[in-house]
Amino acid sequence: MIPASFEYTTADSVEQAIDLLKRHGEDAKLLAGGHSLIPMMKLRLARPGVLIDLRNVTGLRGIAKTARGLEIGALTTHAEIAKSGEVASFAPALSDAAGAIGDVQVRNMGTIGGSSAHADAAADYPAALLALDARFEIASAGGRRTVPAGEFFVDMFTTTLAPDEVLTTVIIPQAAAASAYVKLPHPASHYPVVGAAAALGVEGGAIASARIALTGVAGKAFRAGGVEPRLAGVGLSDRRRIESLCTGAAQGVDARADVYAGAEYRLAMADVMAARAVAAAAARAR
Ligand SMILES: Cc1cc2nc3c(=O)[nH]c(=O)nc-3n(C[C@H](O)[C@H](O)[C@H](O)COP(=O)(O)OP(=O)(O)OC[C@H]3O[C@@H](n4cnc5c(N)ncnc54)[C@H](O)[C@@H]3O)c2cc1C
Cα of 254 to ligand 1 centre, how many Å? Predict the structure, then answer.
């Protein structure tokens, strides 16, 4: 459990981080909270020759409402997101997800940028960010680009980020009428066995539109596209109907199996968690 030797350096700005990434090529890795990268290095699943610590890049921290929506710097910790009043009112599903990650120590160190870039199949944020239609701002020597969550997460441990790019900001463009994230946590790590987020549009006491996303079930988080249109017109208090309409939330998905949960169990829990997320969001809308 000791990492292979590596060089350590710090960046003081996004531009300097990009320069260092270019100089060291694919041998370099950015370091944010270190709560995924360092365990992987200890297990020798990752062996970067150079770590570029982002901790001094103050411009990557913080939460602000701007013309683009709610902007969250990549270095903002899970704890900061969980306790933010702005996140709680604009994107409550994201507060739920941040507050349910790991334990206090993990939440105080881990960052939204690090978690998103790492793209663990069982990470909490991807479901919330897909349901909330988040955008990812990415910087490189060639400038900045913005990618929707649906394109950012490519596969297990794979995103659209190139080795010489820095994720700078997560943007939630619009507040849904109501949103929520719930999960069935693994009892030891608290990673979701299955997690679900729902973001609802509401009209006259009923669901007008729904975006539902699941994590933990497959190699990457995904939208429950078959279920979403069925929920239009369902009353906010109609729990039974919500439960029955969320059946098949992960239909057609190649579910994962591991020592803790089989594929069939994950598919069954996908229905349960999707219904709970919709019901929780509907309760907030009432
Ligand atoms: C005991 C334990 C329990 C956990 N439980 C959960 C849980 O319940 N739910 C959950 O979702 N997660 C959980 N995690 C993971 C935790 O949330 C990590 O903090 C997170 O996955 C990684 O964020 P980080 O800031 O620590 O990133 P790091 O570990 O520093 O980096 C992760 C990866 O992202 C890259 N990276 C970091 N920042 C950037 C950036 N700005 N731009 C481009 N690339 C970047 C790094 O190069 C690295 O490849 C747990 C971790 C531990 C150790």
Answer: 25
For 58-172, give the CATH class: alpha beta
What one-character-per-residue DSSP string does 205-235 give? TEEEEEEEEEESSSSS-EE-TTTGGGGTT-B
Interval 187-203: pLDDT, tens? 998 999 999 999 999 99
Alpha-carbon gap, residue 146 to 252, rounded angstroms: 29
What distance in Å separates the CA atoms of residue 28 and residue 40, rounded to the nearest whole number?
Answer: 14
Nearest CA to ligand 1 atom 21: 115
Question: Are the CB atoms for 81 and 98 separated by under 8 Å?
Answer: yes
Provide the 10 A C-beta neighbour count for residue 155.
11
117 lines ligand 1 (CB under 6 A): yes
Instruction: Give per-residue pLDDT as tens, 219-261.
Output: 999 999 999 999 999 999 999 999 999 999 999 999 999 999 9
Q: Is 124 in the pocket of ligand 1 (CB under 6 A)?
A: yes
Model confidence over 54-111: pLDDT tens digits?
Answer: 999 999 999 999 999 999 999 999 999 999 999 999 999 999 999 999 999 999 999 9
Give the neighbor-by-neighbor strand order of the sheet with 28-31: 7-10, 50-53, 28-31
212: which strand partners? 198
CATH class of 7-53: alpha beta
Domain ranges of the chain: 7-53, 58-172, 178-285
Coil, helix or strand at residue 72: strand
- Report how far apart, in Å, the C-alpha atoms of 147 and of each of 53, 144, 172, 233 are: 24, 10, 12, 31
Task: Report how far ligand 1's centroid is from the alpha carbon of 110 (Å).
Answer: 6
CA of 268 to the centre of ligand 1 (A): 28
Q: What is the pTM of this model?
A: 0.97
